[in-house]
């Protein structure tokens, strides 16, 4: 139940910090030995493998068979594609999230097996443009993404045993939860009315604090 | 009322695409002539200046005195700092948004004059980690950030002439607007109750479609 971070540059190290913050285990993989050694100096218990994440032997040495996920986050889209492909071949159940440098490569990365593809330079460019054109919005989104204590965007799946009910009957405001919408079979119902019917398998997209999320999850799983 | 994009690498070009999409004018500035020439081939009406954005003469050639904003988005934090400083010296009213490579440099960039500092590699790392650990949430945030038509996070300032009213009296649901909170003097009131008092100077943080935003803005400025 550990993670493999393939590519331990700036993006990979920021991922590692988030995994540390949420107490997950991981192995750093990079062909650049220097960057691994430097990282180990700052963090003596860092586990790393010196090699190419698209190489079967390296992923096997990282115990891919028991891994929960693989981050394919080098700065080379072709290599990230190879990593995604190799990881899924060795363990079809592993979740793969890939970085892409050029947005146009995103469909190819998905085809190679990446479950999600993210382009920091693309979304970063959008965020920077937003900060210029729509001041104010961004700092709130940043807070949301960053802080463990602040309100954040959360997914709350309605469990199989959930007894059908309307949005109004859930008293979301009482939990200090703001409902943005309901996702269902890839469709998103924005701002559903109070008589919208909730059913197992749907996902509530909400904004709330972590404790509010826990309280709501307890309530809907009863 | 144009923008100067200092640093026309991958991030700078993504900013340019967003400015094109929202019909803003800009000048691309980079010391790398090749990247400018290549960009001009794809976009024959591209305005560019071949030089260093931290150089007074280059910013003056870009008519900084009449610019609305400067993007300091090279891949070098020190240079971005120089650009921010120079831009504010030449035009104290210009808005400066800076990219930072290492999060630890963010306070220095602010000190140099950047109004907002954003680190694509940092927020990108967070997003990638989120996509692994909290599947589902991210695609919604990406949709939000990307699409012009979809629902997005918006700031709606209450204008000076706004007659004080409660949250409940605004009938936000009727506008198909979801209220996340109210910002006031840097504080954020999450999920305010229906009897929360709204006053000029506060900012509503909402999620809604662009048309809903326009309708609400018309209503509150009457
Ligand atoms: Ca690397
Ligand atoms: Ca550049």
Overview of the molecule:
Two copies of one chain form a homodimer. With 222 residues, chain A is an alpha/beta fold. Chain A is 37% helix and 24% strand. The first copy, chain A, is built from eight helices and twelve strands. Chains A and B meet through helix 1, strand 5, helix 6, helix 7 and strand 7 of A and helix 1, strand 5, helix 6, helix 7 and strand 7 of B. The site of one calcium ion (CA) has 7 residues of chain B, from loops.
- How many angstroms separate the termini of chain A? 28 Å
By oligomeric state, this entry counts as homodimer
Mean pLDDT of chain A: 89
What does the overall shape of chain A look like?
elongated
Helix proportion range of chain A? 25-40%
Cross-sheet strand order for the largest sheet of chain A: 3-2-1-4-5-6
- How many distinct helices of chain A? 8
Beta-strand level of the residues of chain A, as a percent range?
A: 15-25%
Radius of gyration of chain A: 20 Å
Bound molecules: calcium ion
Question: Greatest contact pair?
Answer: A-B, 70 and 70 residues
Largest sheet of chain A: 6 strands, parallel
Q: List how many beta strands of chain A DSSP finds.
A: 12
Attribute tags:
homodimer, 222 residues, alpha/beta, 6-stranded parallel sheet, 4-stranded antiparallel sheet, 8 helices, elongated
């Amino acid at each position: 139940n550990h993670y493999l971070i393939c590519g331990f540059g700036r993006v990979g190290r920021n991922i590692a910090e988030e995994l540390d913050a949420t107490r997950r285990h991981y192995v750093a993989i990079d062909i650049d030995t220097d960057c691994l050694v430097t990282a180990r100096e700052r963090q003596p218990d860092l586990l790393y493998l010196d090699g190419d994440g698209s190489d079967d032997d390296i992923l096997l040495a990282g115990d891919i068979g028991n891994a929960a996920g693989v981050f394919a986050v080098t700065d080379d889209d072709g290599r990230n594609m190879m990593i995604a492909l190799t990881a899924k071949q060795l363990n079809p159940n592993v979740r793969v999230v890939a970085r892409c440098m050029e947005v146009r490569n995103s469909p190819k990365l998905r085809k190679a097996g990446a479950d999600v593809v993210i382009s920091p330079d693309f979304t970063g460019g959008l965020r920077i443009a937003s900060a210029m054109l729509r001041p104010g919005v961004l700092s709130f989104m940043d807070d949301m993404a960053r802080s463990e204590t602040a309100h954040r965007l959360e997914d709350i799946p309605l469990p199989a045993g959930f007894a059908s009910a309307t949005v109004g009957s859930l008293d979301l405001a009482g939990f200090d939860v703001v409902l943005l919408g309901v996702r269902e079979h890839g469709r998103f119902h924005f701002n559903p009315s109070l008589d919208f019917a909730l059913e197992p398998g749907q996902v509530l997209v909400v904004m709330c604090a972590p404790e509010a999320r826990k309280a709501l999850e307890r309530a809907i799983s009863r």
